[in-house]
């Protein structure tokens, strides 16, 4: 009698047979540590950037108010297909009007694909279509929006997709925990999850102190901003605490595009999420 077939989750290596799991994990390791697009971080002082993925409405409301209270501007990575729909746990995602407002107030809108696809498993043609569709939705907000920076959905990618997206964007942000210092990998910028479920004020203080010591670039990422956030969200109290800690330590509080512009200057190309020619 044949064993029943098990439906595997494509983006979960732990659900795969052991040899396949090793292959996936090895591929992820190589993709994270193989660098082809780098930038020396010669910043005069420490930098902390606050980013938000998927962009729940609460990030555009509560999150933006907290950022602006501390004189900060953030980067919001948007998957356009989800605009105005219900997200995790039923929490609403940002509407076009909310995105238009945060853009008008000087915050950056970045690309997170159109449908939040796990890009490791799609063709480059399908990936280019995702970028094109997302650009169409977001540039309808304002024709001046330049999708210069990207964040990997689920934090997952391959060498193939990393190399391709490096040609489309100024930077690609991963979810690989770490502080960018010395030489930044623009195809896989390190970032630290800012979530009530996984980080404490003591750890935030430690990260900020290390960023100051190394004159590094610390990127935080989160999702919703709620008093009682879900597993991947942050509370207003903790977000405010992190902003205050970074500001009091003398860190510049700038978005991804503004940071890269300061680090690289006029030499930096504006790819605007276009597939390479």
Work out the radius of gyration: 18 Å
> Which class do the helix and strand fractions yield?
alpha/beta
C-alpha geometry: globular
Strand content: 5-15%
How many beta-strand runs? 10
Written as H for each helix and E for each strand, in order along the chain, the element string is HEEHEHEHEHEEEHEHEH
How many domains comprise the coordinates? 1
CATH class: Alpha Beta
Note the gap between the termini.
53 Å
- At CATH's second level, what is the architecture? Alpha-Beta Barrel
> What is the makeup of the main sheet?
6 strands, parallel
Poorly predicted tracts of residues? 1-14, 266-277
Give the helix level as a range of percent.
25-40%
Query: Please, what is the average pLDDT?
Result: 87
Using the coordinates shown, work out and report the CATH topology.
TIM Barrel
| The CATH H-level homologous superfamily | Glycoside hydrolase/deacetylase
Number of helices: 8
Overview of this structure, please?
With 277 residues, the protein is α/β, with parallel strands linked by helices. It has one domain: TIM Barrel. The protein is built from eight helices and ten strands. Strands 2, 3, 4, 8, 9 and 10 form a six-stranded parallel beta sheet that branches. It starts with 17 loop residues before the first helix and ends in a 13-residue tail after the last helix.
């Amino acid at each position: 009698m044949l064993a029943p077939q098990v439906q595997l989750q494509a983006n979960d290596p732990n659900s795969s047979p052991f040899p396949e799991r090793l292959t996936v994990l090895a591929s992820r390791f190589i993709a994270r540590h193989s660098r082809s697009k780098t930038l020396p971080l010669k910043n005069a002082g420490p930098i902390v950037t606050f980013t938000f993925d998927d962009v729940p409405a609460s990030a555009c409301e509560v999150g933006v108010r907290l950022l602006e209270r501390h004189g900060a501007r953030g980067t919001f990575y948007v998957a356009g297909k989800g605009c105005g729909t219900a997200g995790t746990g039923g929490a609403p995602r940002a509407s076009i009007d909310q995105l238009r407002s945060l853009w008008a107030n000087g915050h950056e809108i970045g690309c997170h694909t159109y449908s939040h696809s796990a890009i490791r498993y799609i063709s480059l043609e399908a990936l280019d279509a995702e970028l094109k569709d997302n650009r169409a939705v977001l540039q309808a907000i304002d024709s001046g929006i330049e999708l210069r920076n990207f964040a990997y959905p689920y934090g997952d990618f391959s060498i193939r997709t990393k190399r391709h997206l490096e040609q489309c964007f100024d930077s690609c942000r991963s979810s690989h925990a770490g502080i960018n210092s010395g030489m930044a990998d623009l195809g896989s910028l390190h970032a630290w999850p800012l979530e009530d479920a996984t980080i404490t004020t003591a750890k935030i203080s430690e990260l900020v102190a290390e960023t100051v010591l190394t004159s590094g670039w610390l990127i935080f990422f989160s999702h919703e901003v709620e008093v009682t956030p879900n597993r991947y969200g942050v509370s207003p109290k903790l977000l405010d605490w992190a902003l205050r800690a970074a500001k009091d330590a003398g860190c510049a509080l700038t978005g991804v595009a503004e940071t890269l512009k300061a680090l690289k200057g006029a030499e930096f190309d504006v790819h605007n999420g276009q597939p390479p020619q």
